[in-house]
Amino acid sequence: MSPIAVIDTGICNLRSVTKALEAVGAVVRVVRSPAELAAAGAAGVVLPGVGALRDCVDALRTSGLDAAVAGWIRADRPFLGVCLGMQALFEHSEEGGVKGLGIFPGRVVRFQLPAEFKVPHMGWNTVRFTQPASPLRSGLGLEGESFYFVHSFRCEPADPALVLAECDYGAPFCAAIGRGRVFATQFHPEKSQARGLQIYRNFAAVASRP
Predict the structure, then answer these.
(1) Are strands 4-7 and 153-157 parallel, antiparallel or unpaired?
(2) What counts of helices (H) and strands (E) characterise the chain?
(3) Per residue in 28-85, pLDDT tens?
(4) Where in the sequence numbering do the catalytic residues fall?
(5) Element (H, E) at 124
């Protein structure tokens, strides 16, 4: 079985993500450079992240993994971004005026909500999948599935067809994206119990296919 590479940017919840992947039967290799990624012989890549987007993007650029990630995604190889790993894929973020990797057109903006909605958006919330045939949704319902969120900023893809799932918090926002074999979630599957493990199980299944 070819491993799944998990990118360590130094600011990610590495242990939780690797343990979740191992719990669904995946072989995991932690990588910190393009050379380690190439040597891993990985069938899929996971980019997790928590904290500040600038730190995440800077770590990728310093290591050279920004170009490696961009090339991997553009080749439509199995990829899963989590939280900051989703936000980093877009062109620009309002969080400190950060320039993202620019793999997908779009921006990351701060929640602007009525006073009754606390920011950050933290805790369990339900999502609805807008791509019914997506392999990342296998074993999950179209609506009413709950996942765990912790974020103050949300992604606005320029292409609506990129949206894989939506969530409501004051107004609808993009909770996940998907195109081909490339996926990313704003929520944390590793903190989302059985449904989150199903997300990782589905991604591992995508990565295992030729």
Answers:
(1) unpaired
(2) 6, 13
(3) 999 999 999 999 999 999 999 888 899 999 999 999 999 999 999 999 999 999 999 9
(4) 83, 188, 190
(5) strand 121-129
